[in-house]
Amino acid sequence: MTSRDKVKCHPSWAQTGPNTYSQPSPSSSAELEAWLAATFIVTPGKTSAEHWKNMIKTRQMTLYFFPEERQLFIQGEHHILDGRGVMNFWDRFFRALALPAKEDMMKTDGSEISRLPPRSDDLLDMAENKPGRGEQHALELLAPLVTMNAPICVPVPHPLPPCSSRNATLELRLSSHTTESIIAACKAQHLSVTAAWHASVVLATQSIQAKRNSASGAGARVGTQFACFGNFDLRRYFPASDATSLPDAYALSNHHGVLPYVVTPDGKTFSQVARELASFYQQDLPKADAEVWSALGPMIRMLVPEFTRTPLEETTPALSSLGVVDNFINSLYVDAEGKGGWRIEDVWFGDTVTGPWLECFMWAWQGRLSVNTCYNPAYYTHAEVDEFNQLVQEKMLEGLGVVGRGPWWKL
């Protein structure tokens, strides 16, 4: 592999239960070499797509290289590295390749532990106002989910078949022209692209729910409440780094939190739904809720049993927006003289799905929006997921008033 190689970056996460383990720091060069051999794997004669379909859990974050495709693929647990963290990883990785550090990176002197990132819990004031208040407020945050009686979801046949051990994904990449039109329409209406996409997923899911219920003889019955967990990057709330902190101390790791939200689209315009979601995503968390930090830990502990029981039956799509990836990963990394370089051709993000829901991702890279849906093939076909992706795009274009569409819009 030369410094002029073009590569594609493929982060992916594996969903697991609340198992924990520790990884001792290598105490010798031999142990370090063994760790490197186990966590950086060159896989000739195989594609990243083949690896993804049959991917199994690894004990540690593992980086794969597929030489025929010139693709790098990092696999790991979501609770170790979040979306922002994995983009920061790729940026620091290629910076290190383009401008290698002068110090010996292979030394094992016991100082490695000091370079581990801090926990979010240690950087935020998680103290309760009074004993038990954190748990009480967590119940208050979760209350809208408990009281739902008409969820918007994707109907699937019951009884549910066993979950497949294979992974599946389908990406819809919009053209530069379509992307530009969507961004322009969002700016004109003072909407975020993430909120417009979320509103589109809500309406697309509701349409598919009506279609499937009608086909099954249940009538065109649809839900009226779409429940989600919004992802919030907590790094913006951390204290500023001081002289004792490492540079980029907060860049990696998993520093995101989730909050529940229920949106009711009936009787509202597309813009009203999107604006409501934008207000949710753009809120300053501690200003909007002074007790939010004390409730995050108890809330997650309450949710773990629900997310780890089997079989999982939730069929409301989950959403995660990576934003504009170019803001985190450059297209080109060069050395100090501006020579050589690593060119990034493409990026991709995905997640394993162990139940009957759709895992929806959205990001922009080099002027094009991508809508990627990961799913378990035991519950959905390729054609069904393609219909879902196309419908999400259609709802977004219609809702934003983007006209003049044609088959060339996906080119």
Range of strand content? 15-25%
> Please, what is the CATH homologous superfamily?
Nonribosomal peptide synthetase, condensation domain
Mean pLDDT across all residues, rounded? Answer: 89
Q: Please tell me how large the radius of gyration is.
A: 22 Å
Number of helices: 10
- For the record, the CATH architecture stands as 2-Layer Sandwich
Low-confidence stretches: 1-6, 14-20, 407-411
Distance between the termini: 31 Å
Amount of helix? 25-40%
- Characterize the main sheet: 7 strands, mixed
Question: How many discrete structural domains?
Answer: 1
Order of helices and strands: EHEHEEHHEHHEEHHHEEEEEEH
Structural class: alpha/beta
CATH topology: Chloramphenicol Acetyltransferase
CATH class wording: Alpha Beta
**General shape:** globular
Number of strands: 13
Organism: Pseudomassariella vexata
Protein name: Condensation domain-containing protein
Can you characterise this structure?
- There is one protein chain.
- The chain is of the alpha/beta class and 411 residues long.
- The chain has one domain: Chloramphenicol Acetyltransferase (2-Layer Sandwich), CATH 3.30.559.
- The chain has helices at residues 29-39, 48-53, 83-98, 133-146, 176-188, 193-215, 270-281, 285-288, 292-308, 382-400, and strands at 6-14, 40-42, 62-66, 71-77, 168-173, 226-233, 256-263, 318-324, 332-333, 342-347, 350-351, 359-365, 368-375.
- The strands form 3 sheets. Strands 1, 2, 3, 4, 9, 10 and 11 form a 7-stranded mixed beta sheet that branches. A 4-stranded mixed beta sheet has the order 5-13-12-8, covered by helices on one side.
- Helix 4 crosses helix 9 (292-308) and helix 6 crosses helix 10.
- The protein starts with 5 loop residues before the first strand and ends in an 11-residue tail after the last helix.
- This is Condensation domain-containing protein.
- It comes from Pseudomassariella vexata.
